[in-house]
Design brief:
With about 70 residues, the chain is mainly alpha-helical. Helices cover about 55% and strands about 0% of the residues.
């Protein structure tokens, strides 16, 4: 899986494909890594994703903004 844990790549891919079941499975798998490392990684990834997308997961500065190319 390169330099990232496979479950993180699975989560990113399933979120990009709007595959809810696969996203939940990948998130569960990611959260099982280490004592809390997987959960920490998931939280940071989802917070970062929320900060740069229209999905206000993290309520970031860009939450609600329209991504380039969308109307």
């Amino acid at each position: 899986a390169g330099q990232y844990p496979g479950p993180l790549l699975d989560l990113a891919s399933s979120l990009a494909s709007d595959e809810v079941g696969a996203s939940v499975a990948a998130l569960r798998s990611l959260c099982r890594l280490g004592h809390s490392s997987g959960a920490d990684l998931a939280a940071g990834f989802l917070a970062g994703l929320g900060a740069i997308t229209e999905n206000p997961i993290a309520g970031g500065a860009f939450a609600g903004a329209v991504p380039p190319g969308r109307t």
